[in-house]
Design brief:
Order of helices and strands of chain B: HHEHHHHHHHHH
Radius of gyration of chain A: 26 Å
Low-confidence stretches of chain A: none
Number of helices of chain B: 11
Largest sheet of chain A: 2 strands, antiparallel
Strand order of the largest sheet of chain A: 1-2
Helix content of chain B: over 70%
Largest sheet of chain B: none
Number of strands of chain B: 1
Distance between the termini of chain B: 43 Å
Mean pLDDT of chain B: 89
Radius of gyration of chain B: 19 Å
Structural class of chain B: mainly alpha
Strand content of chain A: under 5%
Helix content of chain A: over 70%
Mean pLDDT of chain A: 89
Oligomer: heterodimer
Number of domains of chain B: 1
Chain lengths: 669, 301
């Protein structure tokens, strides 16, 4: 079968699924959707695996009336890598979602729509990776954005959810605007709608502007600062399986686009690499600093996604610098570090969002200050979250370390090989940034884990939380197995990523096998050390078990330093845990206090509220003022949108007339 | 392997030497150098009391903490002998595996639900985050200086280098000593001598640990000190034969322990709010080392 047939098949399955969902009884919808997602995942994985094993799948559909005539379908190693990640995460998301949405059984129509959009969401993400043709690419991109919007606003009765949804929709369309302008510009330059025709314009003098347009379009999706502001709103609003998939995959498609356009670039790699590296370090730091102080656990995870995008960007920046300086080892270390980090992040971030979703389903709150002690009632979920927290901190023996190690190696390789004092200083500052990001993420995740799962419950919940159902645990087990396989056999994933980097940047790499042999050996060593470390822990723990078995072990109250009546409220809270950190980074973490002042005449102050929260500096001082400035002149055009059907009909007629006259007078060809 | 055994040996008496130095400095007779180790062995023979609030995390954490430090020690070379584990970029894993152990200690402190231990945990997380850049810049500078990225290659080539490398080594020693002090929550940032509740960082985190686990934690502290001592020794030990390098290793460990004791005797603890500034100084000193390396390599153009 040709690759185009696989894609057409996926379209057929999609429509069959949508029709099926309309007619099936509401309690079987989840099962049907899971099977549709799995079928589509299998269909699209087959050509991807073939592409990954060294046979890029390329084909085109002839559509005579379509602009450009043919639609190029192309699955190379890079698309395959992303398609496999999308498929794995989406299948897990569907499994988790079927359990998670059990508590929303009464919202039957919502659920029906939700599943329709879920299968559309999954397959549209795959299509984005497949189409080279600009219009089809934009259509898939738009389908992806809109279907994910519909998934985000599942609880549309809630005002905050709608607000977050509109915010998301607007920002995604801003991204589409940039991409569309980019494609139109490309068409006027080359007469082709294909993204790959970027290679033809790359040497012309204004090519940099086209690249910048595409870059901004993709960066909004990826969440680089200052385009990150949709993430901390959309992720908490969405149901957890959707946030898991969105954070695990959808932001990565922005990265996918960036890697694609980078591969067509044929000059000024060095300067673009430096800019991308600096931007990424700032993104990573900004994301994790905010993640450490947020008390809404899903918001904290969303900021953490921004951090990881930054780390991926560091890898890409290093790779670009490598191209600029013609250092092949650096190219491979940078880009393969980024690719493996993309894979790693999609795994542990969906794991974290799923386990956070389990907590939300049982407790109905996202505020960590109301939680605590869930380790007792939800032990399995706690361990899932803990493993995710280790992995996201890049701690060995888990998979996060593998990609961070590659990126560190990239930085050191850059330090050795790149000349010029300014570059050396940039690389050292990136090193410091990356190290601090690692340290802060430990602070952030000890806080999240400690406050949510450990200690005493901090408030009375409506219902006693209990462990979630097996169908919700299953995808998390699958993810952990995948994570451990990366941690223990990193050399396998590394060699695959090398092949991809080689094929994408084939003009810059002559012979990789020779140079990367030592790094591959190191990968093997790291995998073995991870295994040994686990063995060492088990050994010491068994020793401890046998030593302690014969002795008296008793349980008693926590030592309260002589105070015998401790209450749960006296526990360290999430806010107090991050307080000294927040004070130290006060330049970025701004705090707002909300309270009513006591007036002088008020003799007997009654009840009053006092609350503090940290806000997003860039959103408040950069994005919001800009939007306000922009919306001021737009007010003058408000008369167009007046809410009267009649005028809208006139607009339609007017538009048809223009098209008609344009064709008649041959102004439009 | 040699280095692993030497560090284990040094760890038995390290804290003893520190305590002895402190007692001499304050005019007391003081216990023998083996006393802290005897205390640890006494703890290892005991049972345990756990908090009712705590879960399995609390019981596993000291084990993993100890294991992480043992694995880190296995990476440290000795003279011309590499450590048990040695590969390019092993110091990245060294730092991250230590962080893994620390992660467990922090969550085990939060596991007890005590406000004191939460406070200690918060500070431990903050200070270890602040101290990490200094270590990485030092190792990065040495990597740049020698052109290698594993402990063994860095240290073995460092000592074949010009004499200026010893000057850089001296600055690095200063930073490493202070890193050791901060990582173990000793004097300038925290005072382990005070009554447990008044100690602000590490000791307050382990308030609830008892018996075997407490012994593990105390022993891990000794190991950590001798681990940093071994790193410092490696800065100066060339590829000399073992009969010379082993005695000099112990001499350097001894001097380090005495220095720690003197520091603790004659320095007051900083105010908690001044600690971050102090720790940032380490990062700036390590940046000085980095610029020194650039200067030596002639990369300032």
């Amino acid at each position: 079968m040709d690759v185009s047939q696989y894609i057409l098949l996926s379209v057929l399955v999609l429509f069959a699924g949508i029709v099926g969902l309309a007619f099936i009884s509401s309690d079987k919808r989840a099962i049907l959707s899971i099977s549709i997602v799995i079928i589509n995942a299998v269909i699209t994985s087959i050509p991807s695996i073939m592409a990954l094993t060294g046979n890029p799948q390329s084909d085109n559909l002839l559509l005579p009336h379509f602009p450009g005539g043919t639609i190029d379908i192309h699955i190379d190693g890079l698309s395959a890598w992303f398609i496999l990640i999308i498929n794995f995460t989406s299948v897990n998301g569907a499994l988790f979602g079927s359990g998670y949405l059990k508590s929303y059984q009464n919202l039957r129509t919502n659920l029906g729509f939700h599943w329709v959009f879920y299968i559309l969401f999954h397959i549209s993400m795959v299509w984005v990776c497949v189409f080279d043709h600009g219009i089809m690419f934009l259509i898939s991109w738009e389908l992806m954005s809109l279907s994910s919007l519909m998934l985000v606003i599942f609880e549309y009765q809630n005002k905050n959810v709608i607000k977050a949804g509109i915010n998301y929709m607007l920002q995604m369309h801003l991204s589409v605007v940039f991409l569309t302008i980019g494609f139109i510009w490309l068409f006027t330059e080359t007469g082709s709608f294909n993204l790959s025709s970027l290679a033809q314009v790359a040497s012309s003098k204004h090519s940099l502007w086209i690249f910048i347009l595409f870059f901004i379009g993709f960066a909004i999706k990826a969440g680089f600062i200052p385009f990150h502001t949709w993430l901390p709103h959309a992720h908490p609003a969405a149901p957890s399986h959707v946030s898991g998939v969105m954070s695990g995959v959808i932001v990565k498609l922005g990265i996918f686009g960036i890697i694609r356009i980078i591969s067509y670039l044929n000059h000024s790699w060095f300067i673009i690499g430096e800019i991308l590296l600096s931007l990424s370090v700032l993104t990573a730091l900004y994301g994790i600093i905010n993640a450490a102080v947020k008390n809404d656990f899903k918001q904290s995870l969303a900021f953490c996604t921004i951090e990881n995008i930054g780390i991926i960007g560091i890898g890409l920046g290093l790779g670009l610098i490598g191209i600029g300086a013609q250092k092949e080892t650096l190219i491979i270390l940078g880009f393969s570090g980024a690719l493996i980090h993309i894979l790693n992040h999609s795994l542990y971030k969906s794991l974290l969002f799923f386990s956070a979703g389990s907590v939300y389903q049982q407790t109905h709150t996202r505020n960590i200050e109301k939680l605590g002690g869930l380790m007792k009632s939800m032990p399995v979920t706690s361990i899932f979250f803990l493993i995710g927290a280790f992995a996201i901190g890049g701690l060995p023996p888990f998979n996060g370390f593998i990609s961070e190690y590659l990126i560190y190696s990239g930085i050191f390789n850059g330090l050795f090989t790149i000349k010029g004092i300014s570059n050396v200083i940039l690389l050292v500052l990136s090193l410091v940034g990356l190290v601090m990001v690692g340290g802060i993420s430990i602070l952030a995740f000890t806080k999240l884990f400690g406050v949510i799962f450990l200690g005493h419950p901090r408030s009375e919940l409506h219902e006693q939380p209990k462990e979630v159902t097996f169908i919700m645990q299953l995808p998390q087990y699958l993810i952990i197995v995948a994570m451990l396989s990366i941690a223990i056999f990193p050399q396998f994933f590394f060699s695959n990523s090398i092949t991809i980097v080689e094929s994408v940047f084939s003009t810059h790499i002559s012979n990789s096998a020779l140079q990367m042999a030592s790094t591959t050996n190191n990968m093997t060593t790291i995998g073995q050390i991870s295994l040994y470390f686990m063995a060492l822990v088990v050994l010491i723990f068994t020793m401890r078990y046998y030593v302690l078995k014969k002795r008296t072990q008793s349980f008693s109250e926590t030592w309260g330093c002589g105070y015998v009546a401790p209450i749960p409220h006296a526990q360290y809270t999430g806010r107090s845990y991050a307080r000294s950190f927040a004070d130290l980074f006060g330049i970025i973490i701004r705090e707002r206090k909300v309270f009513d002042k006591i007036s002088k005449t008020q003799l007997y102050p009654g009840h009053r509220k006092f609350s503090t929260y940290y806000f997003d500096l860039l959103e408040k001082y950069l994005v919001t003022p800009l939007v306000k400035q922009l919306s001021f002149p737009l007010n003058y055009f408000q008369f167009i949108q007046n809410g009267r059907i009649q005028s809208y009909v006139i607009y339609g007629l007017f538009f048809i007339l223009i098209v008609f006259l344009g064709t008649a007078l041959s102004l439009i060809k | 392997m040699v280095s692993f055994l030497l560090i284990i040996l040094a760890s038995f008496v390290f804290i003893g030497v520190v305590v002895r130095t402190k007692s001499i400095a304050s005019g007391r007779k003081g216990p023998g150098v083996m006393q802290p180790m005897k205390d640890i062995i006494r703890l290892w023979r005991k049972g345990a009391v756990y908090s009712k609030t705590s879960s399995f995390i609390f019981q596993m954490a000291p084990t993993i903490y100890l294991a992480s430090i043992l694995l880190a020690i296995a990476m440290i070379p000795h003279g011309k002998l590499p450590g048990i584990i040695s590969f390019d970029g092993d110091f990245v894993m060294f730092a991250y595996i230590l962080a893994f152990g620390k992660f467990w200690m922090i969550i085990s402190a939060l596991d007890t639900g005590s406000s004191f231990e939460g406070m200690g945990a918060s500070r431990e997380a903050l200070y270890s985050m602040l101290v990490e850049p200094a270590f990485f810049i030092i190792m990065g500078s040495f990597a740049l200086f020698t052109g290698y990225t594993s402990f063994y290659d860095i240290f073995s080539t460092l000592n074949y280098g010009p004499y200026i490398s010893y000057l850089i080594g001296l600055l690095a020693t200063f930073v490493l000593v202070l890193i050791a002090m901060i990582e173990n929550s000793r004097m300038p940032v925290d005072d382990p001598k005070t009554h447990l509740e008044l100690t602000m960082i590490h000791e307050v985190m382990i308030l609830d640990n008892s018996g075997f686990d407490l012994g593990n934690i105390f022993y891990a502290t000794s190991l950590k000190f001798s681990m940093y001592g071994a790193l410092i020794a490696n800065l100066f030990l060339g590829a000399v034969p073992l009969p010379i390098s082993i005695p000099s290793f112990f001499i350097i460990q001894f001097v380090f322990a005495v220095a720690v004791g003197i520091l603790e005797s004659f320095m007051a603890r900083f105010r908690m709010s001044h600690n971050p500034q102090f720790i940032f100084i380490l990062t700036s000193v390590s940046l000085l080392i980095f610029f020194g390396v650039l200067l030596v390599l002639g990369k300032f153009i």
